[in-house]
Design goal:
- By secondary structure, the protein is mostly helical.
- It folds into two domains: 247 residues, Growth Hormone, Chain: A (Up-down Bundle), CATH 1.20.1250; 215 residues, Growth Hormone, Chain: A, CATH 1.20.1250.
- The protein contains 16 helices and no strands.
- Helix 2 packs across helix 6.
- The longest helix has 38 residues.
- The N terminus is likely disordered.
């Protein structure tokens, strides 16, 4: 069962000023604006938290001997840790109602931040452990948020409103980084950990507000034992409409106790749709991370050449690189925000998810086809701006929409596995490709671009398959009025 129970009929609420204002960006129906904005604020705080602690992570790991190399190796360490942490999260989801699940997991991360602050103040070496923790925290906390959002909305609502919710993520990334830049000179680096803990506390408070608001509006007529206040977050139901349907679906489950619920990885590998999404996410990150290596290598070469030729305007190599990335990240963030505000919702509305999931791989294929023959900095910059901006807007929204026609089991457990472990697997595969390409077969920038071109071909096939499965599952869901 999801949070959206016994939906109020359309037009039962008068449109407020917020609903009208948001219609500039998406198809917002009467009374939907409040929850959408609260969810956007929620994910804004989560992303701002991550971008506040990211400078602390970078400063600690890069000041360690062999830090740059350690960063590559630790991605594999994060993937190994997630093999144990993801099933542990699934076990919690089997036992705890969604509000308690959100509170428990977030409280754990807040306590970790406070503990890391105390250790840093005591000059305890935490660089490696903290780097591992941040990589896991960022993936798991954001995946949990989108599981929660999927649980609140129907498929039809999510397709309309996720574009607004995801604006919070775009703004959180931009303003979180700015916030860190403002606070470091005032308070110092370690104090950012306490700021991040405070932001997480605000985020979980908003989650509780949204949960209470939605239950009061849509579950007040149900017995408490059949509401999301008491049912475990991870149950087998899809969205249901009435008490009788709830009873029928609950007793028809193959097993309702935690001992009989399937594990996180078993859910993924036992379901064609979920496995396709997992592979899709792996290839998305594999291609993107390899593309970041291509960009970094090209920028370093360009900086060295500019300094040697005297055309760097008096900048050192590191200053040249820093200025490039500052401008690059600003353009990416601004482009992504524009796409999120004005394109994403309309894209999903008018051409659908099946086309939406194809946009990024088509762009990536075209981009790396160009770089395979002309890997100059201006073109690499253009390709990566297009790829990253589309990834952070269209792709990010669509990949979360893909879980709308799934059960609560799949939303909370399988999504956590896919968005954390399989995402990190893409980093590991990219690191392996770069290691082999540099040390064994001596791939140049052109060679890595051609490797990415081949990977993008597989990605395109996966996107086609995922789009077809989404359409099939959506049709099956809509044909059964008890599972809407």
């Amino acid at each position: 069962m999801t949070g959206r129970l016994d939906l109020a009929p359309p037009g039962s609420e008068q449109p407020g000023q917020l609903d009208r204002a948001l219609r500039l960006f998406a198809d917002v129906r009467n009374g939907e604006g409040g929850t959408a904005i609260l969810l956007a604020l929620n994910v804004f705080l989560l992303l701002a938290t991550y971008y506040c602690i990211r400078p602390v992570r970078e400063a600690l790991i890069l000041s360690t001997e062999g830090g740059p190399e350690l960063k590559s190796y630790l991605a594999a360490g994060q993937a190994i840790l997630l093999l144990g942490l993801v099933p542990a999260y699934g076990a919690l989801a089997d036992r705890l109602p969604r509000r308690r699940l959100l509170n428990t997991v977030t409280a754990f991360f807040i306590l970790c931040l406070v503990a890391f602050y105390g250790l840093a103040q005591g000059d305890v070496p935490i660089a490696v452990v903290f780097f591992l923790w941040v990589g896991i925290f960022n993936l798991m906390i954001v995946a949990q948020f989108w599981s929660f959002a999927n649980d609140l909305y129907t498929k039809e609502q999510g397709e309309r409103l996720f574009a607004i919710v995801a604006v919070g993520a775009s703004l959180g990334a931009v303003l979180g980084a700015r916030l860190a830049g403002w606070l470091i000179p005032l308070f110092g680096l370690p104090q950012l950990l306490l700021v991040a803990a405070g932001l997480l506390g605000l985020a979980v408070a908003i989650s509780n507000l949204v949960d209470a608001r939605e239950r009061a509006q849509h579950e007040a007529h149900l017995p408490s034992r059949l509401t999301t206040a008491e049912l475990p977050a991870s149950t087998g139901e899809y969205q249901i409409q009435t008490v009788e349907d709830a009873k029928k679906l609950t007793v028809s489950l193959p097993g309702v106790g935690p001992a009989t619920r399937p594990g996180t990885f078993r859910l993924v590998f036992g379901n064609r749709y979920l496995l396709l999404i997992a592979l899709l996410i792996t290839f998305v990150n594999w291609v993107n991370t390899t593309g970041e290596y291509i960009l970094g290598r090209t920028v370093v070469d360009a900086a060295r050449a500019a300094v040697q030729s005297g055309s760097a305007g008096g900048l050192s190599e590191s200053e040249y690189i820093g200025r490039f990335y500052s401008e690059f990240l600003f353009v990416v963030s601004l482009t992504a925000l524009g796409l999120q505000l004005f394109i994403v919702s309309r894209l999903i509305k008018y051409v659908g998810v099946r086309v939406g999931v194809m946009v990024l791989p088509v762009l990536a294929f075209a981009g790396y086809a160009i770089l395979a023959f002309a890997p100059v900095l201006a073109l690499v910059r253009m390709v990566k701006i297009a790829e990253n901006a589309t990834d952070y807007s269209i792709q990010n929204t669509v990949r979360n929409v893909l879980f709308l026609p799934t059960s609560r089991d799949e939303k909370y457990k399988a999504k956590q596995a896919i968005d954390s472990f399989f995402w990190r697997a893409g980093d590991v595969l990219s690191a392996a490709l770069v290691f082999v390409g540099v040390t064994s077969i001596e791939l140049g920038t052109t060679g890595f671009a051609r490797a990415n071109l081949l990977l993008t071909c597989v990605w395109l096939l996966l996107a086609l398959a995922v789009g077809r499965e989404y359409a099939r599952k959506s049709k099956a869901l809509e044909s059964n009025p008890a599972l809407r």
